[in-house]
Design a protein that fits this description.
109 residues; 5 helices
Length: 109
Amino acid sequence: MLDDTATAAYAHLFDTLGEPTRLAILQHLASGEHRVRDLVEHLGLAQSTVSKHIAFLHECGLVTQRPEGRATWYALENPARLRTLIAAARDILRATGSEAVLCPHLHTP
């Protein structure tokens, strides 16, 4: 018997990681805290787009926020756990014949 709640939770996580912009944001956050405006500059996207994706990542528990004055700084909630997940994905890709490596910050402890 399948657990529909668990299936939905996993699907939501994979949906989160399956969006290229969100994955790019996670790669930037792997190097340290960023503000939305920093991510806008790095990614070349509209502020509203980056904010929407950051909110999604925060809702999923992958990103934390730290207010500082009028700015909010975003960081990875648990970098080690994300690196483990990325390493598992890399192994699966390798096994299927795709050699793809994300930014080095997601590979080093």
